[in-house]
Amino acid sequence: MITIWIVLALVAAAWLIARLVVTLRHDGLGSAQPPASHADWSSDLPSHPYRSA
């Protein structure tokens, strides 16, 4: 009887993993390109940002 429960648990785990894989592939995880990064902020900053005139 224990063997039946082990087999049933393995089948359920395999089904859950298969559903997770299908869901992640449908979601596009890992296949979409990330958004473009903004320009480097250090190039636009003054050398003395807190100095008063």
Description:
With 53 residues, the chain is mainly alpha-helical. The chain has a domain of 25 residues. The protein contains one helix and no strands. The longest helix is centred in the N-terminal third of the chain and has 26 residues. The protein is rod-shaped and about 80 Å long. The termini are far apart. The mean pLDDT is 78.
SSE blueprint:
Layout: H1 2-27
Q: Per the principal axes of the C-alpha atoms, what is the gross shape? A: rod-shaped
Helix content: 40-55%
Q: Which class best fits the helix and strand makeup?
A: mainly alpha
Q: Count the strands?
A: 0
Give, in order, the helices and strands: H
Region (Disordered): 29-53
Summarize this structure as a short list of keywords or feature phrases.
mainly alpha, 53 residues
Outline:
The chain is mainly alpha-helical and 53 residues long. It is 49% helix and 0% strand.
